[in-house]
Amino acid sequence: MSWIDEQLMKHIFVYSKDPFDPVIVNNIPNGWKLIGKGNFAAVFTHPSLDGKVVKVYAENREGITEEIMVYKKLGEHNAYSRLYEYGERYLVLKKLEGITLYQAFSTGTFIQKTVIEDVDKAIHFAKSKGLNPTDIHGKNITMKDGKGYIVDVSDFLKTYSCPKWKHFKRGYYLIYLPLFKNIRIPFPHWLLERIRKSYQFYLLVTGFRRKQELYSNKNRSNLS
């Protein structure tokens, strides 16, 4: 996979300005397409990568070593991606088709209950492998044909208890499912971002976001 280093990694710029906002991406080479951004990495496709994607970590963020370990522990499971190859700052992964739950909200696409149930089963499977599924939320889950997939496992080695999926499920069953089971209303981007930022503020007030920051700083110190 050295051609990825030559064609992508030598040119691409991926930088994390804020650990709680999507990364900044510049200088995408011809032929490569950006299909997703997280807080620590961006995901790209290329016509020669049939059924695969390349996840590139921001140059100022750690975590790739831990994510490699997680995929090796998970092995193969239909609700997770699969690791094929990796470099110093990138992973070559199985492409998971579909749209994120965040995109489903923005387009008014109904999120079936089976998607939620699939994610619950995937979490249970990860726990059976000795992992701690964390940071599971609407941007880290995709759905297609009523099936749910977890696309980001980078935090599964962390030890803190993460409330995000529990809170998402509570909102899904108490608010979303009763209101939107029979109607389709797209949520505007500004509203989704306001909800996302408000939830981040809630986590900050309740102390969870501070725990994340302390864990990240401690982990960074151990790696240096």
Automatic annotation (TrEMBL):
Signal sequence coordinates: none
Entry-linked Gene3D superfamilies: Transferase(Phosphotransferase) domain 1
Superkingdom in the source lineage: Bacteria
UniProt-recorded Gene Ontology molecular function terms: protein serine/threonine kinase activity
Keywords from the UniProt entry: Kinase, Serine/threonine-protein kinase, Transferase
Keyword Protein biosynthesis: no
Record PANTHER family: SERINE/THREONINE-PROTEIN KINASE YRZF-RELATED, SERINE_THREONINE-PROTEIN KINASE YRZF-RELATED
Official protein name in the record: Serine/threonine protein kinase
Species of the source: Metabacillus endolithicus
